[in-house]
Every structure is written in C-alpha cells, then in structure tokens.
C-alpha cells in the first residue's frame, strides 16, 4: 500500500520541480532580454497643456537623432556606447527644440539604469524591473512622463507625429501575441515527454 502512494508522490514532486525549473528559466530569459533593451524616458517640466505638448516635440527630436546614431547598430553594448558618446549631441538637439518653441527651460540628457513598472505597448510588453534608460528631463521634470524603447528601435515618429511600433525589432519573449509576462513558457524536452504520457 505504501509503495502505491509513494510512486505518485515522487512523480508529483518531480513534476512540480520541473514546472518550477520552467518558470525559473522563463524569468531568466526575461531578465536577460531586459539587459538588451534601452528605454527612453522624457520628463515634462509640469502638467500644463503647453508643457505636455512641448514634451512631445522634444521627444520627437530626441528619437529622430537617436535613430540616426543607432541606425546600423544591433548590439546593446555598442548601442549604450554610442548613446553615451552622443549625449552632448542629443542634449543640444533637445535644447534647440526648446529654443525654437520659445521655451526658457533647461534640459538634461543622461544614460543610467532606472526602475520601470510593467508596461504594455501595441504589439509588445515590457516587464517591471531595472532598465538602461536614456532620460530626458525638461526644466524641473515634475510633469507627466513619456516612455518607450529607443533600442531596439520599437518607437518611431510616423505621420501626424504618432508613435508607432515595429514588432519585428522586439525580442520574441516580449511579444504580446495574446500573452502576458506570466504566460511566457520555456519548453523542456523531458517535461514535454512526461506530459505526453498523461
């Protein structure tokens, strides 16, 4: 009698262990891909209509310049290096936009790691966590923020200054094909073989 109970118990524990391994592997895959993403975070001076509109104009200019810098780049380490080298250029472009719009705000651009919440975009999602970030701060930066992805190029300026997405550039594990972060699954050969017996 004890043997009959023991075998299913051991098998159940093995299945639980394998399922935990699968979840751990999926979490590691997401964490690894997070390190291959550079986000863009634009902070408006305040929440007034004028400042929010100004934020979008600065965003457009920064994205345009960043795309020129990263046009042929496919490596996240090189992307970080290129953006770091061109921070003065990006800052100058942002300040020029402010000047053209008659704003007296100061503007700063930096590249550093920053915490983000879970966020869904059209066609992909990004889990919460710490990301390398290109941060643009207008004035005191106390207004509503705008953020997306500058590398790989997931956001670009389309017609009528609308942000669109290029799904093909995002890592597969971030695709939103009717799945959330918790639905990401790594298939293990042994686990699939065991499931086929039930």
> Number of DSSP helices?
5
Write down the domain tally.
Answer: 2
Q: Order of strands across the widest beta sheet?
A: 2-5-1-6
Strand content: 15-25%
Biggest sheet layout? 4 strands, mixed
- Give average pLDDT, whole number: 76
> CA-to-CA gap between the ends?
23 Å
Helix content: 40-55%
What string gives the helices and strands in order?
HEHHHEEEEEEEH
Principal-axes geometry comes out as globular
Model regions low in confidence, pLDDT < 50 over at least 5 residues: 1-6, 18-31, 157-168, 178-191
The helix-and-strand class reads alpha+beta
Radius of gyration: 22 Å
Number of strands: 8
Overview of this structure, please?
It is a single chain. This protein starts with a helix and ends with a helix. The protein is 43% helix and 23% strand. It is globular and about 70 Å long. By secondary structure, the protein is α+β, with helices and mostly antiparallel strands. Strands 2-5-1-6 form a four-stranded mixed β-sheet. Strands 3-4 form a two-stranded antiparallel ribbon. A hairpin with a 5-residue loop joins β7 and β8. The protein has five helices and eight strands.
